[in-house]
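for the writeup, i need someone to sanity check this before i put it in the appendix. the sequnce is what the collaborator sent (i think, or maybe the updated version? ugh). structure was predicted straight from it, no edits. if anything looks off just tell me and ill rerun, i have time this weekend
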Amino acid sequence: MSNDGDDDHHWHLRGYFDGLKNFIARLIPEGLTQDAEVVEQLSKLDETVKNDLVNAEKNPEIQWTARLRNDNSLSEDEQKFLKARKAHIREAFAKYVGVDVSEVHEDDIPVIAAAGSGGGFRAMIATSAYLAGADKSGLFDCLTYIAGVSGSCWGIAQYYTIANCSHSQLRAHYNTALNKSPGSHDSINDVLSTPDAVSLVLGGLTIKHMSKIGITAMDLYGAIITGHLLLPVPADEQGTNLNPEHFKLTNQRKWTDDGRQPLPIYTAVRHERPWKDWKDPDYPFTEGSDHTSAEHTEAQNSWFQWFEFNPYEIGCDELKAWQPSWSFGRHFDQRVSTDNIPEQSLSLEMGVWGSAPAGPLSSYLGTIQRNLPKGVITKEVNKMANNIAEHWGPQGVEVFEDHHPVHAANNPNPVFHFYPPPNPPGIHNSPRVHLIDAGMDNNLPLYPLAHPSREIDIILGFDSSSDVQKNSFFQRVEDFGKRKGYRWNSRGGQPPKPEVNTDGTQVSEPVIPTHPTAEYIWERFGHRYITVYDGVPINPPATKGGEPVIGKFNTPQATRPVTLLYIPLLPNKVDPEFDPCLAPFVGSYNLVYKPEEVEKLWNTTEANWRECEAKVKAAVTEVWLKKKEARLARK
């Protein structure tokens, strides 16, 4: 890291620490600000972080220079993982499908991925419960990947850290850890009063500041959420201190290098807005620039680019750029890191994965229209949109809907000056990359699981979205298919699309009675716990095994068929009066769960899994037999 302007930088850093202390003083109960240990940790934070920057024993990655990989093959580490995982799951797969292990050839084992949706703590708990149900069925040990969006990312991260890859331990942790809001005085008191908590929770923010990257509210949000979720509570078996190992994403590879566990994939998206991102920072568009000019009107509409995070690499297939996970947060120029700071804290990354507040207004408008009662409210939203269209014009509507009310976290852009100068306009000329909650685009992480090089055969889509009862998934999966090159066929016919009134508003489903019976719930939802979709490639490669076709937005197109098992979170007869997506305490922005509420949601989710596990096994067996038949035919 450059020492240019070190004195001036230190002055600003001192101001940062003063501001941080003032913030904590306002946020934390008066007693804690006088806690001698916390005060001492705060006073030494500057020194602690500076020592971490040069401590190669603690942070060996500071000795390494990172280089971007410029292709869409899988990393060497992931390829090694796949080989180890197939060998590891062979026996478990034979047991799951009910045959002798001698009948299972490794090449025939389907590559199965679980995908958890967004939906705050509701999705975090429900995805964990679905995976626990799959474990009881014997299927979890057959999974190769686990991917998440937003709240599911938080649950997956806890599984690989504080829960030590134990479903029962994660369930117990939820029961004891979620009864306080992460931002409450009590919660922050609990976190910061534990040994070394100040450096673990706030150190990542400090390193980011030292790297001259602006800190936003989303960074602080991530630090607070993560400190809360990764803090053991007295009921846990591992003590009450934060574990430094949990704050590095790359440490999760200890569970995957030998194939013991599926590979976790976390997600975020970048909002590509041509009118904002075209120019080099030295030549930005000016405020009030003419959005009717050709350089704007001839641009493609805005879209979301998917980024994935796993213990090995972080990157985006549309950009064909992948960096070692330990290098995220570094500055890059022409595909080489220009500083050697330690790996970014998992707390900042968890803040990005669950950063729905930093999304564009258009996503919120869509959520409003899907979830609020139809009629007057919807008419008012449409009226507001029509007024904007009338007074601002089409380009104004686009700019308004793509405005971000909360600033996304700043991070150095790894593809900055990707090519030798001059670089083409766009992201390659932006020194920062702003990543946000992937649920802004699609609430299931189908995109990274459709990576052509992964050759995934089956996706289990655990959907805990608040709108699962509105049949909105079919439209989302169709939109995904158009972009990624799939045509989706639903077995048993296409699911019903939402009915529409003559004025264009959606017809609401019948309201569930106040006290529904188990019979009523089964009659209404019994046929909807699982839907099987066959995804067929629309634009396969010209030759078998050839390079993927590149579609709109530089999106690699699907190369092989995939079976998608869509499993929505619905009411269940085991607790007929509980709606797991609409009950008051399961709201997406509720961050406090009582133990009995955790159990209510967990038990209903596991009951839903039991309703569909037979169809899941049938689909898995079918794919296995097809792969076996194809292999034998090639002999």
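The chain has 20 helices and 14 strands. The mean pLDDT is 82.
thx in advance!!
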